[in-house]
Write a structure and sequence with these properties.
about 55% helix, alpha+beta, about 230 residues
């Protein structure tokens, strides 16, 4: 006797005009549809070269991110930004500000991964997994397959929301907090390089793809039309 059909499977692929729109509105799945096959995987546990490239890119991204958010601060607080970002108030005050930057950066890391986790929860209503590794931290939903557009929201939300928050704070905060908040914005942007890499890669895939995020292993799945996926 034939096995019962998978009720989570997608509709017949003979109706391609409606498939992408249908999938973009679907909820995440815990069971991969029968007509889906593995397409590509990014495994940071094994691909150390890619991990090093991402970290070096993040370090290099600090410079343009710093210039950008510095310019934002100049726009919203003209006449105060240069002095507020300078460490020309003497050694004790400078050390204090650097300590504040460090504290804010740790809070930024927690907030960054927390936002990832929040959107995983919004889409799946399931508790996400958090972990801290030697060179990176992550939030993940290892039991779920997310439609492309939902995963793009998960991936890009920390960069967008934290950047907007810092820009808003620039308007109201006292001058001595310019450097810590600027540092949070810069380090968050630099730390989002991996998210941006995955988001661009995912955006270039068909709208029918499903994404599975295990934290340090990210896999894509596509509908199998001809059995030729590798």
């Amino acid at each position: 006797m034939d096995a019962a059909p998978n009720t989570d499977a997608l509709p017949d692929l003979d109706t391609p005009p409606n498939l992408a729109a249908h999938l973009s509105m679907r909820k995440p799945l815990t069971i991969l549809p029968d007509n889906y096959r593995h397409h590509r995987t990014l495994d940071l546990r094994r691909d150390r070269r890619m991990l090093v490239i991402m970290n070096l890119t993040a370090i290099a991204f600090v410079i343009p991110a710093g210039l950008f958010f510095g310019q934002v601060l100049v726009w919203v607080r003209p006449g105060q930004a240069e002095e507020g970002l300078g460490l020309n108030t003497g050694l004790p005050a400078g050390v204090f500000v650097l300590l504040i930057v460090l504290i804010f950066s740790i809070l930024m890391l927690i907030l960054h991964e927390g936002i990832h986790g929040l959107f995983f929860w919004i889409f799946t209503r399931s508790k996400p997994v958090f972990a801290l590794k030697s060179l990176y931290a992550y939030a993940a939903a290892p039991e779920w397959y997310l439609p492309r557009n939902q995963y793009l929201v998960v991936s890009l939300s920390p960069l967008i929301l934290i950047s907007l928050l810092c820009g808003l704070l620039f308007v109201f905060i006292p001058q001595w907090l310019f450097l810590p908040v600027w540092g949070v914005a810069v380090f968050n942007a630099a730390g989002s390089v991996g998210d941006l890499f995955v988001a661009v890669w995912l955006f270039l895939q068909p709208g029918t793809c499903l994404a599975n995020d295990r934290g340090d292993i990210f896999s894509l799945y596509l509908p199998d039309r001809n059995g030729s996926y590798r």
